[in-house]
Amino acid sequence: MRAVFEVGAQDGAGRIGELEIPRAGVTVETPTLMPVVNPNLITVEPSRFPEFGAEMLITNSYIVKNDPELNEQALDEGLHEMLGFDGAIMTDSGSFQLAEYGEIDTHTEEILEFQHAIGSDVGTPVDIPTPPDVDRDQAEAELATTQERLELAATVDVGDMLVNAPVQGSTYPDLREDAGRHAYGTGLDLFPVGAVVPLMNQYRYDDMTEAVLAAKRGLGRDAPVHLFGAGHPMMFALAAALGCDLFDSAAYAIYARDDRYLTVSGTEHLADLHYFPCDCPVCADHTPAEVQAMGAADREKLLAEHNLHVSFGEIRRVKQALKSGNLLELVESRAHAHPDSLDGYRTLLDHADQLEASDPASKDAFFYTSADSARRPEVLRHHRRLERLDVSGDVLLTEGSGSDRFDEWWNVEAPFGPYPRALSTTYPLTAETPDRMDRGGFEAAAEGVRRLAEANPAASFTLGHRGWPDSALALVPERVELVDISPEGE
Ligand code: GUN
Ligand code: ZN
What string of DSSP letters covers 257-299? Predict the structure, then answer.
């Protein structure tokens, strides 16, 4: 990898990054969102993108190349002048058209040289976006072709233009991982996880999560990762927590075209809205009825503007959460607004061990907001730590107060389980938890007891619990003596 990418604040596998784009002479702060510009179909003028918070846009060099007028203009004055945007510009290659129409009349070397000639800051080879669920043979064969093209791309002289190395592999996590490892080894610069658009369109956030995490396992930690074609704000928090650094949104314009209104928890049809649930300038100045009554062009433009505002607002919220260390809380709250988001979050939690490797050891706060919180990487990390802690003699683990009949006295708290009292003021044991704990939290605490007891076979344990459910008590090893210390239990 040649691109300079400096990672700052981290949370989960997410991070704030500083990505240098040398040809544009700018450093972009990630996570960032690039509005997609179709040069034949401009809904919001790119010169206005900075109003919304855009530092970078993406457009399609294949469309420019195949339109004689645009081609001439782009070669003549350059993309920045042509689009009226002086931030960084990424260009795609025509791979998307390849996926849609089966063939295109260009190839990697030619299109990269063209992208360079029109002044692109980040170019893209002709990768093959293999769709989800294809036969393994097809996924492997197409990945091999993509890999040859990435190797070729690394030999094309494109000056200081950065070059994308898309990671394909369909819905086969092992292929995605191999693809990530290979792409990272090419010496190219940015790493888009490709062909996730069909997953996005079908709200398959669980499969998207698997694809991203698999690609990340193959890529180096310092690799800037782009979620190619992914622009719905309802999944920005999730994707950022998985370690995606760049997003691009065609959704803001495509959805506006058929009266769809983006929100952080899903999509609404303008016709169904009595009120605008948003405080962007568009929504503050208009009612849905007013927008509905406008002509198609005005309506589309206003909806596209709202869609951009809500998308950039969510990117800022994600960045603030990264700095505050509460990105997983944001992901969890987004997850609980839509069942498909919840599937994405639960898939992320299935990989808590992968996230644990980059999740900071200390943050300001841990808010337990549902049974899903019991599976967060911080809980897993505490459980692993319990396996390494030594205790001996008669040990009391209790949610209540101690007793000098015991050699050692530890606290117990759901969802973490036992911990030495000296750790009670350290993260994550400072977690804010509800008084009405759920079954999942108690079961996680019981898992902690089990790990500590199994790691210390010579010690004898007594667990003072406040009315744990049977499902949690069933997880505690039999040799741990149980004492119900709740008022009802006495
Ligand atoms: N746009 C959306 N997905 C893809 C992809 O997989 N490859 C390329 N080149 N462009 C895309
Ligand atoms: Zn709005």
Answer: HTTEEEETTEEEEGGG-SS----SHHHHH--HHHHHHS-HHHH
